[in-house]
Amino acid sequence: MIVRILGEGQYTVPEDQRAALAKLDDAIAEAVDHGDEDRFAEALAALTAEVRSSGEALADDNFAPSDLVVPFSDATLDETKALLADHGESTGSDDH
Amino acid sequence: MGVMKRMSGILQAKTNKLLDKAEDPRESLDLSYQKQLESLQKVRRSVADVTTAKKRIELQATQLQGQADKLQNQAKAALSQGNEDLAREALSRRAALADQLTDLKTQHDQVSAQEQKLIDTAQKLQTQVDSFRTKKETMKATYTAAEAQTKIGEAVSGISESMSDAGMSMQRAQDKIDGMQARAGAMDELLASGALTDLTNPVDDIQAQLNKAGTTSQVDAELAALKAEVGAGTPPAPELGAAEATSAEETPS
């Protein structure tokens, strides 16, 4: 699957990493829900590190759309909340 | 995949806005290429904006540093005149400026980081634009095949996604810079109003005291020299004064 880290680029991550990424992603969602800045930063750092280490950077001349998108690696909690809220069509109704 | 899926949706929504749904996939290739060029120009302009903001902060820091250095020298001069209170005053004002300098340095670091990110974004986009220009012609030539049609769709949404990402990065940098611009504006006003420069202005109070002390000691030195020259001669002034007073009394009205 192709994962994009905003402001950074795309990575091809092996399918078998999906579960690992999902777990890290859940930690971010939880931190966002609880408004926990420290945990958010920690979880985001863990997720970006995982994508970078398990994935392979796509060349800049590759034009494949991404399957998953990771926030800016230095995104703040407020910023991410605002971004998610601005696009309310996909918030709240997420069933997972 | 909560956050990542939602982020993906957000990026997709932005990308869809970028994409005019052209009937002919070949048209969508050209259209998308045009958008890339525009997008690249915007990022370049944004880099220029950030660089300007950085230069402005550098200029302010230079001004403040100059004032801090001057206060340091004034403190030294005051000490050499034996005026410790004045030296203390100069140093405490210097400390206030140092705080502002630290603040400016932090801002400078942040702006530099944003600048570097935008430069990277521009470079990445440039590579993509160059590569897309040649690829789109190849794709047009092979368009008749059904497979090519799918590939064009993918390539167009892929490249548009990159543009959306670049757009978001740019907006983010702009937001950060806007906040700093407001502070830099306030600092410019402060510098222009003289609230900061007055401290170290050539006629500021510290310099005035230093000058006065300097003048006093110079006058004392000259006076001492004159005394030595004249020796112990009796000053004639009192006699002259008395004579004048007498003549004034004698003048008839």
In words, what does this structure look like?
The complex is a heterodimer of chains A (96) and B (253). Chain A has 96 residues and is of the alpha+beta class. Chain A is built from three helices and four strands, in the order ββααββα. Chain A has helices at residues 18-34, 37-54, 77-86; strands at residues 2-5, 9-12, 56-57, 68-70. A four-stranded mixed β-sheet of chain A has the order 3-2-1-4, covered by helices on one side. Chain B is built from six helices and no strands. Chain B has helices at residues 2-18, 25-80, 84-141, 146-193, 205-230, 237-250. In chain B, helix 1 (2-18) crosses helix 4. Chain B is rod-shaped, with a radius of gyration of 37 Å. Mean pLDDT of chain B is 80; it is low at 241-251. Chain A binds chain B through residues 3-4, 6-7, 9, 21-22, 25-26, 28-29, 32, 47, 60-72, 79-80, 83-84, 86-87, 89-91, 94, 96, and chain B through 1-11, 13, 117, 121, 124, 127-128, 130-132, 135, 154-159, 161-162, 165, 168-169, 172.
